[in-house]
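Tokens as discussed.
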């Protein structure tokens, strides 16, 4: 079941203190080992790809429930725990410059896990595409700055990555899982977690954008001059007119989205490469080096305006626990999912080889998180 949810994830600066991270590592190590023994690698990956479970796990480890550090610190702790153990999993990537080391770290992880070259290349491709999709195919103003990939001894994976929106000072987290992933470019996420839903978000991963994806791939297969001609005609459609100022006061101005086509920001070299490769689908187009957000947006607008291809402009975040979720608006909290996640964590804490005081504190933190989400 695919889910998308929303928590408040504010951008918090600074670093977690050493005394806290050391305790988080000790507690995480005990919990992860218990979960792997009880449920296995596949279930642990599935848990990481569940936004609600991941959030609850980070709270058990004593991190701020509403902070962007929930993602970065928790993944960093898990990376230290997994890579320094014999538990049969590895974590690569991380925050900032560490995220760009993922391809090289995957080589080391594959060697340690006994995975072949073919599996390694698939892992590298998956890592690349997860980042490409959330940076270019979904455009809500969030630039990725964190990318963590978790890999099992069977070559299965989960990705947890996060982007920041400097203007709103908020973060958005994306969850991926290899199990059951049919496509990188159509409804691929297990969950998308953010603070707010935005207006006019380009979502090329939506099912509604299927026709647009096909047209974009066809456009990129032809000479870039064709894109130049179309982008020029769209820019003319977006020019100012008296109509904008004659709209009623209640409705307010509504500038055309089409004016956002900016030829100077289109990566023409990427389109020239696409012309040489002639991608057969949108995933192949997205995988081309240099094909980024501006180029993806330009092609999507051309596909919609010139060819009438339907494109989704709806933010893929579906509901918010922080703004109305408790009373069922716009969607109720999924209680069964929440109860199952909390039950697994409670059992893991109780069975973990840690002191009784730490167990009590961990369970209290989990219950506090539960209280925030449970309707009164």
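Sequence:
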């Amino acid at each position: 079941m695919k889910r998308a949810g929303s928590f408040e994830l504010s951008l918090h600066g600074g670093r977690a203190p050493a005394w806290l991270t050391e305790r988080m590592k000790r507690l995480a190590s005990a919990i992860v080992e218990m979960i792997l023994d009880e449920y296995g690698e596949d279930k642990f990956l599935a848990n990481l790809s569940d936004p609600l479970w991941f959030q609850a796990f980070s709270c058990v480890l004593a991190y701020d429930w509403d902070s962007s550090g929930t993602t970065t610190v928790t993944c960093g702790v898990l990376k230290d725990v997994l890579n320094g153990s014999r538990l049969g999993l590895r974590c690569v990537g991380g925050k900032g410059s560490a995220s760009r080391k993922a391809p090289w770290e995957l080589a080391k992880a594959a060697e340690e896990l006994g995975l072949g070259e073919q599996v390694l290349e698939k892992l590298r491709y998956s890592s690349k595409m997860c980042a490409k999709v959330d940076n270019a195919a979904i455009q809500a103003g969030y630039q990725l700055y964190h990318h963590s990939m978790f890999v099992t001894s069977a070559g299965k994976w989960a990705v947890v990555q996060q982007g920041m929106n400097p203007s709103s000072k908020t973060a958005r987290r994306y969850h991926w899982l290899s199990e059951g992933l049919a496509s990188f470019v159509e409804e691929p996420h297990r969950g998308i977690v953010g603070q707010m839903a935005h207006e006019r978000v380009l979502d090329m991963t939506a099912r509604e954008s299927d026709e647009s994806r096909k047209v974009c791939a066809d456009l990129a297969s032809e000479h870039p001059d064709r894109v130049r001609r179309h982008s020029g005609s769209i820019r003319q459609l977006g020019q100012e007119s008296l109509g904008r100022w004659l709209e009623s006061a209640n409705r307010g101005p509504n500038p055309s989205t089409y004016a956002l086509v900016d030829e100077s920001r289109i990566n023409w070299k990427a389109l020239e490469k696409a012309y040489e490769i002639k991608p057969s689908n949108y995933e192949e187009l997205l995988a081309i080096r240099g094909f980024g957000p501006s180029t993806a947006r330009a092609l999507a607008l051309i596909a919609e305006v010139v060819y009438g291809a339907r494109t989704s402009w709806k933010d893929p975040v579906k509901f918010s626990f922080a703004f109305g979720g408790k009373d069922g608006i716009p969607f109720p909290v999924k209680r069964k999912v929440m109860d199952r996640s909390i039950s697994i964590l409670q059992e893991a804490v109780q069975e973990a080889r840690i002191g009784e005081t730490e167990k009590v504190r961990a369970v209290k933190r989990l219950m506090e998180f539960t209280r925030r989400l449970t309707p009164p």
